[in-house]
Structure to design on (496 residues):
């Protein structure tokens, strides 16, 4: 649960980002409290995914501030970025498991090569994480031997292996077959319920309703509306017209 | 007159002189391929570098080594380096020149392998906190190497044949030995046949080795697309036919 007393895990202010003349983010403000599960929804091209990439410095930002662990990480030097990203897990739409490594080694690679963990320990911990994402017997499997849903769960375990304080999910179920969406969302929900701070860009309104502590609606590169899920999806609650239209379209 | 003494071919094939020469051919090829892979990887990384002058350096290298014949490079290394006080054995000159030349071609292969590893893989590695170098070392290069096994096999077979050029700088490899043997008794057919059989034996050996490696990678599921027999026979010979 988000608590007003403790400082936010991550706070973004007035984020501006453009590709050439095309403004993708036009002053986005966002704050994620400890233990919060923040869902970002909105039409395609509204800048949701770009925002996520800006938060862990995968994309350069033209203007704004991102406060993480007590400082503005947009002001950090280039060489500091890897250290910051270690603390922020990210899950991608297309999983991006390392194709040359088994599931176990996908999870253990960064702990071994980035943190210098003992390989045997890292692999043992990978097994623990595989159990956590309900894939206890898939350690030896290579990515192309796994279904999309299984790959995405390994990708979540891979991100967790670095002990992040924050998880970013970039449309984690958009590339999945419908029958495997549920297993991935379930793992994400379990993590959120255990208190993992999460920011989830998603089109799964059911998930947002069930797991989110707050839902944010983005359109045209700005945050249009933010509310707890109950209010966000309440047809009777007052909301901006753009959001009402977006939700209306989803029902058809 | 032709082939009135086929047993002479057999005696050449089993002679210590031809065997040593074939071993020399193999050694030069292996060393030059290793040198070529190392210089090719460095060049490929320079070309992919963020730093402009390094890219220019790589392009200058490619321009120089792809723009002059390898025979010229061999003779240049052998005859010009000594006047700068660098005196190398014929073998060292051969390996140096062939490695430098091979690097220019290997760079393209390495680069295509590196490029074939998608941007999403790099991004995922960076998101885990890897530095640019770690991304290269642990994610991109291992995947790229698997993809370039077939073209590297072809390069090696090409190299076996290319190594015949070093006969001009008096390295005792197959062609030189065959030529010398024949010029003492004018039995060119027999001596060259013996050398030809050694070349074919070596290239066949490496084609089989290449097929074995490709199959092993394929079984682990992470391989370059499978090629049929004819495809890689053609690939192997087309490579050798390339004029440098």
């Amino acid at each position: 649960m988000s608590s007003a007393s403790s400082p936010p895990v991550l706070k973004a202010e007035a984020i501006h980002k453009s590709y050439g003349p095309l403004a993708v983010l036009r002053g986005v403000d966002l704050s994620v409290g400890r233990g919060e599960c923040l869902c970002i929804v909105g039409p395609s091209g509204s800048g949701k995914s770009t925002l996520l990439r800006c938060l862990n410095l995968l994309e350069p930002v033209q203007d704004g501030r991102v406060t993480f662990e007590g400082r503005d990480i947009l002001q950090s030097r280039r060489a500091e970025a890897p250290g910051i990203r270690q603390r922020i897990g990210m899950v991608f739409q297309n999983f991006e498991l390392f194709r040359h490594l088994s599931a176990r080694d996908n999870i253990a690679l960064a702990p071994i090569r980035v943190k210098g963990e003992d390989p045997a320990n890292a692999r043992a911990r990978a097994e623990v994480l595989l159990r956590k994402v309900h894939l206890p017997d898939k350690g030896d499997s290579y990515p192309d031997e796994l279904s999309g849903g299984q790959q995405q769960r390994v990708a979540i375990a891979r991100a967790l292996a670095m002990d992040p304080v924050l998880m970013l999910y970039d449309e984690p179920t958009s590339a999945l077959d419908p029958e495997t969406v549920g297993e991935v969302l379930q793992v994400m929900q379990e993590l959120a319920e255990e208190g993992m701070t999460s920011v989830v860009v998603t089109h799964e309104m059911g998930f947002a309703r069930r797991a989110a502590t707050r839902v944010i609606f983005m359109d045209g590169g700005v945050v249009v509306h933010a509310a707890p899920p109950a209010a966000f999806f309440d047809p009777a609650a007052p909301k901006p017209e753009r959001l009402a239209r977006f939700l209306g379209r989803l029902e058809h | 007159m032709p082939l009135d003494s086929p047993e002479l071919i057999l005696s050449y094939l089993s002679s210590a002189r031809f065997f040593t020469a074939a071993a020399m051919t193999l050694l030069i090829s292996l060393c030059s391929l290793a040198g070529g892979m190392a210089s090719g990887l460095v060049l490929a990384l320079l070309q992919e570098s963020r730093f402009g002058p390094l890219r220019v350096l790589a392009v200058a290298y490619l321009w120089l080594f792809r723009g002059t014949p390898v025979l010229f490079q061999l003779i240049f290394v052998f005859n010009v380096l000594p006047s700068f006080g660098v005196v190398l054995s014929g073998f060292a000159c051969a390996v140096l020149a062939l490695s430098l030349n091979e690097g220019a071609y290997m760079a393209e292969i390495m680069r295509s392998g590196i490029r074939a590893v998608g941007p999403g893989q790099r991004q995922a590695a960076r998101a885990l906190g890897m530095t640019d170098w770690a991304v290269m070392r642990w994610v991109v290069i291992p995947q790229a190497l698997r993809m370039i096994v077939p073209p590297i096999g072809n390069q090696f077979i090409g190299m076996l044949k290319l190594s015949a050029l070093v006969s001009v700088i008096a390295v005792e490899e197959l062609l030189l030995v065959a030529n010398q043997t024949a010029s003492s008794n004018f039995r060119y057919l027999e001596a060259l046949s013996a050398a030809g059989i050694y070349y074919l034996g070596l290239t066949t050996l490496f084609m089989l080795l290449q097929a074995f490696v490709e199959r092993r990678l394929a079984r682990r599921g992470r391989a370059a697309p499978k090629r049929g027999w004819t495809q890689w026979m053609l690939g192997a010979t087309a490579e050798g036919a390339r004029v440098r």
